[in-house]
């Protein structure tokens, strides 16, 4: 499987990244199992699953509905394709929201421990952000000490997870722009009047909305697609404006708010003479500490004694994004690079926390000297070395992990080392704070540029890699096409890593932008594609959208903003897409979500949502056509605002 389907022999249809192609040639030669080879063995994949019409919620099933009318039209209990698809989608949103939010919970609990002095391994690093977030939430700050403020903020955040009253969670209430909040409140009222039933959209509790989905999708409960989708949106809003917002805000307070910096991206960040430690997963509470501890003289000394020049920490996926933005750590790659990194033979340890970690990494690591180290009781993988992480022993555990990596270094097989040379340069760290700083402190100049048409609008992109799409191809083509059309592109996650690897975050990418965007980027000294962080940092995009909306006294659904999740893979991406839609932003998706087996669900998400929420989903396979559609949405919104 080394050339394209058309047999042109010129490119590898598995990846658009030449570095990955180089590694895949080695994988083919050495017959290393990988996601592409396993995908091939899975063919043909189940079409009921692809359409979303398989139900295995009770033991009378599994039941399946053929949407083309061949066979039964209901499951044993009478569930239709519409019910089954809506329930499956709701469960995806619940799982995705729970992953982000549980991450946020851990950050909030750590903030509490630091504030009370129970944890001395971490500090209140960004007290400006602490005061800013506390003020926004309505916590008094005047004349109070930082630990006291942090304690109240931690309590407010923790309360968002477990409170039992019906009031919307405080983070959403205070961060969501006024008009959007009011719109959702009014919509709840209108839906109650028109349907006679309660259809809630504003989340009451982060945990509660996920549990609500597990309850209502249990055998014999909610069968109504509209009600199920509304709850999916509500649960996802609890993620975006709650769990993820808490994760981002608290991590900034504890670890520092990222600032603009220039880094290197791709497998070339691995160093032949260094102890290479790849940190992979999502929660920077551990990975940021590993980066910090790697600077200790005793660690450097131990590496030298083992025969290495130094310890070189590099990132993968979203925990990589976190330390990339805060600590300037090189980025080895996105999701589809995780196996390729180990195949270089130069990774001495891969240290993982939670989410997006292939269990296959344990087997692959065992073919090399690589120590594959799991650290979370929530992500244990057979075959891995498990070193349990405890926040209150973070320094000591990080040192232990680093010493494992150093011990592995002398066991490298030099004949099996293949580090691709290439890296791209990327300017990263565009938090809302940094964007506003570059623009003179307020969103006004960005708004003026949008109003006068120099920038047509803003596209927020998030996304993974998905073996069904040529790695990074959609990310590269869509992004390049949007900036060419004077659309500023911001985003997070594995999309951001793909864009960085492609050089789209280098200053030289200014030349690829349309005249208006190019001039702005040159004047500000920034690239036309802005890295805002990890997937929980999609909350930064919400804050930016909210700042623009409030400044103009408009609803987000009126702004020339559009979202995309190309190459999406995970349930977390379903949650992100859903909270964008619930926040009033249309979202492009590729590959197809598992909803097409239900005409009702498809119609609600692609059409009904537009009328009710302003945001909606659309699918498009071709990156250039996707760019056309995204531009058309921006132009439609501009026209409605007469700009
Ligand atoms: O957290 S690491 S594969 S899920 S994009 Fe996608 Fe990448 Fe996972 Fe979002 Ni981030």
Automatic annotation (TrEMBL):
EC class: oxidoreductase
Gene3D superfamilies: 1.20.1270.30, 3.40.50.2030
Catalytic activity as recorded in UniProt: CO + 2 oxidized [2Fe-2S]-[ferredoxin] + H2O = 2 reduced [2Fe-2S]-[ferredoxin] + CO2 + 2 H(+)
Cofactors, names only: [4Fe-4S] cluster
Keyword Repeat assigned: no
Chain residues that bind [4Fe-4S] cluster 1: 46, 54
Protein residues bound to [Ni-4Fe-4S] cluster: 282, 318, 356, 464, 494, 535
Top-level division of the source organism's lineage: Bacteria
The protein's assembly and partners: Homodimer.
Similarity comment: Belongs to the Ni-containing carbon monoxide dehydrogenase family.
NCBIfam families membership: CO_DH_cata
UniProt name for this protein: Carbon monoxide dehydrogenase
Organism name: Geoalkalibacter subterraneus
Biological classification of the source: Bacteria, Pseudomonadati, Thermodesulfobacteriota, Desulfuromonadia, Desulfuromonadales
């Amino acid at each position: 499987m080394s050339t394209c389907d058309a047999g042109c022999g010129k490119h590898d249809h598995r990846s658009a990244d030449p570095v990955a192609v180089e590694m895949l040639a080695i994988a083919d030669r050495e017959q290393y199992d990988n996601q592409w080879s396993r995908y091939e063995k899975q063919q043909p994949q189940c079409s009921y699953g692809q359409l979303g019409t398989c139900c295995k919620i009770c033991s009378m099933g599994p039941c399946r509905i053929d949407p083309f009318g061949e066979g039964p039209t209901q499951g044993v209990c009478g569930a239709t394709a519409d019910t089954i698809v809506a329930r499956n989608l709701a469960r995806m949103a619940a799982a995705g929201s729970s992953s982000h939010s549980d991450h946020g919970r851990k950050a909030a609990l750590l903030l509490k421990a630091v504030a009370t002095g129970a944890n001395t391994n971490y500090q209140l690093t960004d007290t400006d952000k602490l005061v800013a977030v506390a003020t926004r939430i309505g916590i008094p700050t005047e004349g109070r000490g930082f630990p006291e403020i942090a304690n109240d903020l931690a309590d407010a955040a923790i309360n968002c997870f477990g409170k039992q009253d019906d009031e919307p969670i405080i983070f959403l209430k205070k961060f969501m722009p006024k008009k959007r909040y009011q719109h959702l409140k009014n919509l709840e009222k209108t839906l109650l009047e028109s349907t006679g039933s309660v259809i809630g959209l504003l989340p009451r509790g982060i945990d509660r909305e996920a549990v609500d989905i597990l309850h209502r999708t249990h055998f014999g409960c909610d069968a109504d697609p509209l009600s199920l989708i509304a709850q999916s949106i509500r649960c996802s809003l609890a993620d975006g404006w709650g769990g993820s917002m808490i994760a981002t805000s608290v991590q900034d307070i504890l670890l520092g708010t990222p600032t603009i910096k220039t880094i290197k991206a791709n497998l070339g960040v691995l160093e032949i003479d260094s102890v290479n430690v790849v940190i992979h997963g999502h929660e920077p509470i551990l990975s940021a500490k590993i980066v910090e501890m790697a600077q200790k003289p005793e660690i450097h000394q131990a590496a030298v004694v083992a025969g290495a020049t130094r310890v070189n920490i590099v990132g993968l996926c979203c925990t990589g994004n976190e330390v990339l933005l805060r600590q300037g750590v090189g980025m080895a790659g996105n999701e589809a690079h995780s196996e390729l990194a180990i195949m270089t033979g130069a990774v001495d340890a891969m240290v993982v926390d939670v989410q997006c970690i292939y269990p296959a990494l344990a087997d692959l690591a065992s073919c090399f000297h690589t120590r594959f180290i799991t650290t979370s009781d929530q992500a244990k993988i057979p075959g891995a070395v498990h070193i349990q992480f405890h926040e209150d022993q973070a320094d000591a555990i990080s040192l232990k992990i680093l010493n494992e990596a150093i011990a592995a270094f002398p066991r490298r097989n030099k004949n099996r080392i293949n580090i691709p040379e290439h890296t791209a340069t990327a300017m990263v760290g565009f938090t809302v704070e940094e964007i506003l700083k570059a623009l003179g402190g307020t969103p006004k100049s960005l708004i003026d540029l949008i109003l006068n048409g120099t920038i047509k609008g803003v596209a927020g992109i998030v996304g993974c890699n998905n073996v069904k799409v040529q790695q990074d191809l959609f990310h590269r083509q869509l992004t390049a096409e949007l900036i060419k059309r004077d659309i500023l592109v911001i985003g997070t996650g594995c999309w951001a890593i793909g864009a960085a690897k492609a050089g789209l975050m280098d200053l030289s990418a200014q030349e690829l932008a349309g005249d208006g965007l190019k001039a702005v980027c040159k004047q500000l000294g920034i690239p036309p594609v802005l890295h805002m962080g990890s997937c929980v940092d999609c909350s930064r995009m919400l804050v930016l959208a909210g700042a623009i909306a409030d400044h103009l006294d408009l609803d987000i659904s009126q702004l020339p903003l559009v979202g995309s999740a190309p190459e999406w893979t995970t349930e977390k991406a379903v949650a992100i897409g859903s909270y964008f839609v619930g926040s009033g932003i249309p979202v492009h998706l590729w590959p197809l979500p598992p909803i097409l087996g239900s005409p009702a669900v498809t119609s609600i998400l692609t059409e009904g949502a537009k009328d009710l929420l302003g945001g909606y989903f659309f699918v498009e396979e071709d990156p250039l056509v996707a760019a056309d559609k995204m531009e058309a949405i921006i132009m439609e919104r501009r026209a409605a605002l007469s700009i």
